[in-house]
Structures are given as C-alpha cells and as structure tokens.
Amino acid sequence: MTVAVKVASGENAARALVREAAALRTMPPGGIRVLHTADNVYCPAPWAWLVTPWADGPTTWDACKKLRDTTEGGRAEARCAAVELCMAVGRLHTAGWVHGDLRPHHAVHTTAGVRLLSCTGASRIGNAVSATYLGGLVHLLSPRLAAALEPTAASVMLDPDDEIYTLAAGLWWAATTTWPLAYADAGLDSSTMSALALRRAIATAKIPLAKAAGHPWPEFLAPLTAAMAQPPGSRPSALQLADQLKAVPLT
Fold this sequence. Notes:
Elements: E1 3-9, H1 11-26, E2 36-40, E3 47-53, H2 60-63, H3 65-68, H4 74-94, E4 97-98, E5 107-110, E6 113-116, E7 123-124, H5 143-148, H6 160-176, H7 195-203, H8 218-229, H9 238-246
Antiparallel strand pairs: 1-3, 2-3, 4-7, 5-6
Helix pairs in contact: 4-6, 4-9, 6-8
C-alpha cells in the first residue's frame, strides 16, 4: 500500500493535525481513512503525525488543466470533475458534515470516487469550529463567513450554504485561473492586500462577482456565478449544482 505521512510540529500545527485525525475517523465515506496517528501536544516540543492511504488520481485543479489550456477534450473532463466534486460535497453535507476548506487542490478524483484532503477545518454541521479556524483560502470565502470570522464575532459554526459559495468559487478559479471576485471593479488590488484586509473587504459584500462573459466557456461559469450571487438560504445544494453543471452543453 502507498501511504501519505503528514507531520506537524509546534503547538498550533500539532493541535490542527489532531483535529484532522479526529474528523477523518468519524467523517462519512469519501474522506481519507486514518491508518495510524501519534500525537503529543503537551510536551515542550509538541508534534503530531498522521498516516493515511495515498489518494491516487488528479485533483480537481489538474482535471481542469485542459480546459484552461483550451485543449481538445478539456470541457468534458472539467465538467465531469466539477460534477463529481459537487456530488461528493453533497453527500458530505447530507451526512451532516462540512469540509471547511474546499478548494480545487483539496479533492482527488480516484477510481473509487472523490477523496477530500486537508480536513483540518471539517466539522459536524451545528458544531463550533476551532478558535484558530480562518476559513481556508480567503478568495473563496462567502461574505457571511468572512464576517463571522472577525475576532469580535461569536463562535463560528460552518453552514453548508457558505460552503456552496466556496465550492462554486473554487470551481470558477479552477476553470479560469482568475478569482471569482472583480477586485479591480471595487478599486482593490488583491495582490497587495493582507489576508485579513481581504477577508474584511469580502465581508462587506460590496465586491462584485467577476463576469463570465469574457471567458471562453461562459455557459459553464453561469451556474457558478448564480450560486455565489444568491443570498444565504437561497443557494442551490451541492447536488443541485451538480445537476446544473451536468446540463451545461460541451459545444
């Protein structure tokens, strides 16, 4: 068997890896099962390690490469990968879990189905996340979750609705290599801003979504834009988004 070994040193990193191991042991099928762990987060030099089976296959980001390169067959591969990821996230949500850090590099398309990586932020729906949780990749955060991560906010509980936004935003990024928000239209240069400043700007909900019209396959981006544009409570489920993407024509 080929395995992955993840090692963390330092108190914060070790505690995060312990949380990930605990989540992987109880998350529904579709995650990566734990083979072995060792942790000691109370000694003077805290450390932890985790062994899981290797997930063999392309990530969602890799599966969209031909689309980004406008290579033949790229649309079919990207649409298939997007649908598979949406269905995997839908099954996770149906089972009462949220991943917490969805991005196209954290999903591997194996022969046994999609395997989700980097589950440090995963939690049961309705449970408060760790105080150190920062929401994952800031460019993919929903405005509501970005606001909830402010230090003055109450404890954060992840909601599938916010994860649908992140799912759509991540697929936009994988398909285009561009961020799903039109920072320049809001007078912002995201490349010069800190993660904290970006998160606070996103939390205002005043940054417009990027336009699909300028990309080679706007029909694929349209359901993603629509999902992000909807207010919380009105977004499609991950399984509904999968159905919408299935219906996107390849030509």
